[in-house]
Amino acid sequence: MLPVNMFIQIAILFLLFIHQAAMAGISIIQRNGVPDIYVNNKKVDLSKANIIEETPEYKVYVPDEDPEVRIIISKNGGLMVTDHGTSQIMVGSVNREMTPEEKAKFDQAMKKLDRNMKQLEERLGNLGSQINRQVEQSLTNVLGPKFYKNFF
Fold first, then answer.
1. Which of 48, 70, 90 is the last residue in one of the domains?
2. Could you report the per-residue pLDDT of 95-116, keeping only the tens digit for each?
3. Which of 63, 109, 118, 151 could form a disulfide with 49, with the two C-beta atoms 3.0–4.6 Å apart?
């Protein structure tokens, strides 16, 4: 009989093997900033793939190479390939300059993030001071004012 610890290790290895086997037929390779997608060792031709969903933000393709595979490509260059519930993701628009609109949105988001960080730091500082006052008051009430002042 296997010890419980070894049984758990075998189960984890088995799950990892299943995950790798499920995605074994999918590869994403980037050449000169352009991703190439391979399914079952065949390069996917997106011009021949069926588009099953199209929004202003992304398109979902079903390649002829495997009808179970879904390829999602965002307008900003993000890429996700799913197969039987597992996913490979390539994030971002590699080797592409931001458009002026994207740059403006990015700058605006960074300013908002900076304001939020400053507000958060201020709130945390106030919370720390409030906690210190409450602890001091509680110790003074429990131990007496003379003991507390001599203690610190």
1. 90
2. 566 778 878 888 898 899 889 9
3. 63
Average of per-residue pLDDT across 57-86? 83
- Same domain membership, residue 72 and residue 17: yes
Burial class (CB in 10 A: 0-12, 13-18, 19+), 92: exposed
113 and 56 share a domain?
Answer: no
Domain boundary among 46, 62, 90: 90
Distance, in Å, from the CA atom of 140 to the CA atom of 66, rounded to the nearest integer, reads: 72
Nearest to 26 by CA among 107, 83, 79, 109: 83
Q: What is the pTM of this model?
A: 0.45
Nearest CA-CA partner of 82 in 74, 72, 91: 72
- φ/ψ (deg, to 5) at 92: 100, 170
Q: How many C-beta atoms lie closer than 10 Å to residue 81's C-beta? A: 25
CB 109 within 8 A of CB 102: no
Q: Within this chain, do residues 51 and 82 fall inside the same structural domain, yes or no?
A: yes
Helices assigned H by DSSP within the chain: 4-22, 100-143, 145-151
Domain of 25, in residue numbers: 4-90
Residues 58 and 113 in one domain: no
